[in-house]
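Because showing beats explaining, we let one protein speak, sequence and backbone structure tokens together, and leave readers to judge.
___
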Amino acid sequence: MIYGWNEMRNLLSQKRFVGGIVGLVLLINLALSGSVQAQVALPGVGSLPSGGAVASPPPAAVSLPSPAVGLPPGMASANPGPASVPSAAGMPAPVVTTAGTAALPTGGMATDQLRGRNPAGSAGMSSSNQLPSTAGQQWRTYDLRPYTGYLTQHDQPQQAIVDWVLRETGTDVWFSSPLGILNADRDRLTVYHTQEMHEVIANMVDRFVAGEKDPQVMHLRVMTVGSPSWRSQSHMLMQHVNVDSPGVQAWLLSKENAALVMSQLRQRSDTRQIQAMDLVTHNGQTQKLASTRGRNYVRNIRKAPTGWPPYEPETGEIQEGYQLAISPLLSVDKREIDCVIKAEIDQVDKLVPVDLQLPLPNGQAYRTRIDVPQVVSWRLHERFRWPSDMVLLLSCGVIASPERVGNPLPFLNLNSLTGTTAGRADALMFISYGGRAAQNIGSAPVAPLISTSPNLDTRGRF
């Protein structure tokens, strides 16, 4: 049926038809408002792709934006949904506790889970802003500034405290159950562990912050004796100490008996004093010294870039000598001293020659030789504790001598005929505490970081 303009105007004037048009408009508005709500970006996720389905729904802990666009007020409050999660920037400040469960520091929970993400490969992962306290762990902070404030010339003085804590507690307690945390900077040491572990750490930290701050002196004497028979004369002057390192012997001596033993050793013709010095170091820090020289040898033969000779030797270098590191730590009352000693001795016993025959373009053989080094090495890494008013004497056994003495007349060397291996000696080390460095000025030369003997070849020295 075709209506004219007058008929359409009459129809539009009727209330029933107008009400239908208004209802249709409201339905269209509701549909449009629902589409706008579905496209609102989630925090940290970004807008959803238009016209497509969501790949994976967001976690239940993240709520959609509050009241939808265009919904009536009554519908917005009917279904409030889950509570929203605060962002990383709005998390509370770190809480330092001494018992119970400790809160994680600020910034540690800015994870993908809090942002509504579920990255691939995160199955089985869980996050929490609380540290587990299954064994009653406690969060404590130790002030290191009374110690580190004096060591202005050291880049990381707190590393010595961490090293000594690990020596006292071991490393397994920090990588096994219960959960433990150990962290240090120049001003403080942060620890999360059980009460028993805190007692051990507190005693160790007190030896730094309440102990000596001034530089201390350690007297060091390194000697070699050709024969271990020196023990027969000095045995009653020494008190034996058990040592875990194989082949190493240790004794404690009073300062008077130590002077007598050194006097007896100097009277022997096979005794040589390698080093006699004072090591100046701060309490707990490590001091190093070394005496090494390079020994060259032919380790390989390679083709020469030029025409002749057709091959050229490739040389190598072995550093022989000794390296020593000492880390002393005094007790608070200075009656006892703990000392970690690390010594390394390397010596080239001999170079074994190996003849080679290499082909030439004309079919003949090019004869040359390479060297295979026979190296004798010895290692010591031990912690000792003794009264600070006594002297510790270490014997490394008959090992490679820390320094090789060259024979000025090689044709008179009878070692090959007698079967005696050159460079073997009983290495002895006397270690004693000398007090503050200010009280020992001018008493003995201060040890350099790297020292060398004047009779060694300078080639390859570092």
Q: What stands out?
A: Confidence is low (pLDDT under 50) at residues 35-101, 107-117, 406-421, 443-462. The two ends are 111 Å apart (CA to CA). The longest helix spans residues 15-38.
